[in-house]
Amino acid sequence: QVQLVESGGGLVQAGGSLRLSCAASGRTFRSYAVGWFRQAPGKEREFVTAITWSGASTFYADSVKGRFTVSSDNAKNTVYLQMNSLKPEDTAVYYCASSRWSTGLAGTDLYDYWGQGTQVTVSS
Question: What are the residue ranges in the chain where pLDDT is below 50?
């Protein structure tokens, strides 16, 4: 199994920044990519971004392009999500997840393991 732990969430004003971390442990060799998803109250879980552990490929939802940056640190088995210019509509619980695939990473079906989530709240 692969265990994932998110951290770095919190309360920030609109226009501010946060950096989320996703630390992976366990059988990480089974993980080829890590995705970030978010879920706001009453809404479905939606794709935010994904990165292969090599860092060679990254994918972003249109809603966060130019504001969010995903990166990976293989030595620390950690993926980061730098979120800038935050908006109230970014408020959600953010989850990281592990996938054995390198394409189609916007779909939740391709992810095998999920973290417990971290709350991000952006005030207006």
Answer: none
